[in-house]
Amino acid sequence: MHIAIAGNIGSGKTTLAGLLAKHYGWDAHYEDVDDNPYLNDFYEDMQRWSFNLQIYFLNSRFKQVVEIKKSEQTIVQDRTIYEDAYIFAPNLHSMGLMTTRDFDNYFKLFNLMSSLIKPPDLLLYLRASVPTLVSQIQKRGREYESSIRIDYLKRLNERYEAWIESYNLGKMLIIEADSYDFPDNTDHLNQIIDKINAELHGLF
């Protein structure tokens, strides 16, 4: 089974993926951040590196989904292939940070890849306000994220909400991240697990 966690930068996807993997005994597939050769350059010059970064993420996540399909384990995935295509790439294009030529090329490649894969059995969406995102980003202290602007996070949040509103690929559970301190509060984590259990039992 394939569980995927979607959400903006700093919403808590990686933390929740790890906690759920530990609780259920699932395998966690994390976003390729530490080994990504474009991230530092991208945050220093978004216009120059946006296409390269998005192609890297697209390839990385397609590879992940192919591996998930082959696996006999239940896997929880940190971020989906759809978020790159429906949120991050269009946002860069609308901000003038990716050319129309590059965006069209990117989206054709995404359409081909998405036609070859299955969506997750359950999508968990971590909805978080901009202040929560900023707080989490500052707390983890990644140097390349220190230059992320508030308006950039706000634009991404708006795109996330539009995508979630139209999401129809399968079961989805929205988790209000502002209301749950799941890394440090066991009761909050258990409440989320109860919600997930209710959704999962409907899958069988």
Provide structural commentary.
The longest helix has 25 residues, at 46-70. The protein has a five-stranded parallel sheet, with helices on both faces. The chain is globular. It has eight helices and five strands, in the order βαβααβααβααβα. The relative contact order is 0.19. 57% of the residues lie in helices and 12% in strands. It is of the alpha/beta class. The protein has helices at residues 13-24, 39-44, 46-70, 81-94, 100-114, 130-140, 150-166, 186-201; strands at residues 2-7, 27-29, 75-78, 122-127, 171-176. The protein has a single domain (2-201), classed as P-loop containing nucleotide triphosphate hydrolases (Rossmann fold).
Quick description:
With 204 residues, this protein is an alpha/beta fold. Helix content is 57%, strand content 12%.
List low-confidence stretches: none
The CATH architecture name reads 3-Layer(aba) Sandwich
Shape verdict:
globular
Count the strands? 5
Order of helices and strands: EHEHHEHHEHHEH
Radius of gyration, in angstroms, nearest whole number: 17 Å
Overall pLDDT confidence: 92
Largest sheet: 5 strands, parallel
Helix content: 55-70%
Query: Briefly, what CATH class?
Result: Alpha Beta
State the separation between the terminal residues, measured CA to CA: 11 Å
Q: How many separate domains? A: 1
Q: What is the overall number of helices?
A: 8
**By helix and strand content, what is the structural category?**
alpha/beta
> Could you say what the CATH topology is called?
Rossmann fold
Strand numbers in spatial order across the main sheet: 2-3-1-4-5
What is the name of the CATH superfamily? P-loop containing nucleotide triphosphate hydrolases
Strand content: 5-15%
